[in-house]
Amino acid sequence: MISNIVVQYTGLLRTSTFDLWARLRELLRAQGLDPDVTVVVDLLQESLSHEEGQVISGEGRVYRFNLFYDQEAEHGARSAYLRDWTDITESWQTGSLARRTADAFT
Question: Which domain of life is it from (predicted)?
Answer without folding.
Answer: Bacteria
